Amino acid sequence: RNPLDPYTPLAFSVDTKLLKRALKSNRVSDGPYIVAGFASKKNRGLPRIDNLAIIPINKYGVVIESSYERALYDELCNQERLVQRIHDTKYHPKWKGFYPDGLFIDTTPRTIIEVFGMSKSMEDYHETKRIKIDHYSSLKPHYGFWHWDAYRDAEIPSFPQKKN
After folding, report:
1. Which of 48, 51, 84, 134 is deepest in the core (most CB within 10 A)?
2. CA 59, 65, 70: angle at the middle one, nearest 5?
3. pLDDT digits over 2-30, tens only?
């Protein structure tokens, strides 16, 4: 859509290799997506996309990194939970450089969110998972810790209670 006139569609051309590379750059195989790029104007024909990013989002527009995160953030939005998605670890030194998938800011204490979804065959991932679970669990009473082992448990566990 044309940002200056949403009723007038825009058309672009994009090299197939560039499109495939952009699609492979994330772990989410289906949309919705935000598609962004830079285009150059050619003398004839359609503007050509020279650089392209395809960013997976949930149905509410939250940027996600996996289909499990999409399901989680859809449910968080459905339940109108307050979650900080992007955070700077300098404000959370007890995290020791880990970046959780989110932080409930409507709980007391604030609650770290993690979604684990990789298969059993990825040994490095599971070692990091174990370290994160041990570390985040040790942060009580400063933080709560909620996680979903999506690979093993199809249903999302109940969320921690909102503060009054």
Report:
1. 48
2. 30
3. 667 778 777 778 889 998 888 888 878 88
